[in-house]
Design goal:
Number of helices: 12
Structural class: alpha/beta
CATH superfamily of the largest domain: Periplasmic binding protein-like II
Radius of gyration: 20 Å
Number of domains: 2
CATH topology of the largest domain: D-Maltodextrin-Binding Protein, domain 2
Largest sheet: 10 strands, mixed
Number of strands: 10
CATH architecture of the largest domain: 3-Layer(aba) Sandwich
């Protein structure tokens, strides 16, 4: 209720910029992800630019959350007005409830499935996970949902793992380095500090997906496409590791005022250079790609108008 009231006041302020009496500092929040991991980093950068662009009128607050699945459910319930989520979850939510409350503000960046493994574990392919200790993330995280879907698509039986863990990403990498976990499944944009830490601190490996595995995942989960973990993002990675990828998207509730969504979208478009300087995750923002709502939630009208007006 606080979010809706705040954005309504902001809508009035933005709709009548000459009416100084209507202007006041308005707070709203954007659901990100686990602390200091991809979504959290991106949302902090976005909020910083929104606050700079609308100083004295709009205050964007980045919210740490368990991740994509939580954000989608919180958007559907109205507990969040804005949030970042994986495209597979956004797409599924839109398919389950056509005309439902989710709307696209912008696709932000690609993130890939990354299987980090201990070199001593001898894991060269997904089938080698049998009998190993594997972390797939908290149940409220997108990586948990995607890891299960990926394993199902490739015929990996999670019941064959010696242990199935559901840790926060940072704790999972700590466990990998401490030999309490053999493999960690992530869905993450690059470069990622958490991946760099695993590669540098405990000589972790990035296990690639075979062509057959990639085809199986894309056939079963069309939100995914061919991707790779880029060697250029990590000093310890000597060559690109083929895998699958999908978009991370900024979503809004349909009932968010167009003036509010438009102001946020214009900030993403107009301050692309500053966002890319703040984090390499946002270094390749392109308005045409950002506005692509194919097979997912439709563009919010405020975002649609902002993209239409973009140079």
């Amino acid at each position: 209720m606080v979010i809706r009231t705040a954005t309504l006041v902001l809508a009035l302020a933005l709709a009548a910029p000459g009416a100084a009496s209507e202007r006041r500092l308005v707070f709203f929040s954007v659901g990100g992800g686990e602390l200091d991991v991809g979504y959290d980093v991106a949302v902090r950068a976005i909020c910083a630019e929104v606050n700079a662009a609308h100083a004295g009128r709009l205050r964007c607050s980045p919210e740490t959350t368990p991740g994509s699945r939580y954000n989608v459910e919180a958007l559907k319930s109205g507990d969040l007005g804005f949030g970042v989520a994986q495209w597979d979850l956004a797409k599924q939510a839109a398919a389950d409830a056509p005309g439902g409350p989710l709307r696209l503000v912008a696709r932000l960046f690609d993130e890939t499935f990354v299987l980090l493994t201990r070199p001593e574990a001898g894991i060269a392919r997904l089938a080698d996970l049998a009998g190993r200790r594997v972390d797939i993330g908290q149940p409220a995280s997108g990586r948990h949902v995607s890891a299960r879907a990926l394993f199902d698509a490739t015929g990996v039986d999670t019941d064959a793992f010696s242990t199935l863990l559901t840790l926060p990403a940072s704790a999972a990498v700590d466990a990998l380095c401490a030999d309490r976990v053999d493999a960690v499944a992530l869905v993450i944009g690059h470069p990622a500090a958490i991946v760099a830490r695993a590669l540098d601190a405990c000589d972790a490996r990035v296990t690639p997906l075979s062509a057959a595995e990639r085809r199986a995942v894309i056939a079963a989960q069309p939100a995914f496409h061919e991707g790779f973990v880029p060697a250029g993002a990590y000093a310890a990675l000597s060559r690109d590791a083929p895998t699958v990828a999908l978009s991370a998207a900024l979503l809004a509730r349909a009932d968010q005022p167009s003036t509010v969504v438009g102001a946020l979208t214009r900030t993403l478009v107009d301050r692309r250079a500053a966002l890319g300087a703040a984090t390499r995750l946002l270094a390749d923002l392109d308005p045409a790609a950002m506005a692509d709502a194919t097979d997912g939630p439709p563009l919010h009208p405020g975002a649609r108008d902002a993209f239409a007006a973009a140079p």
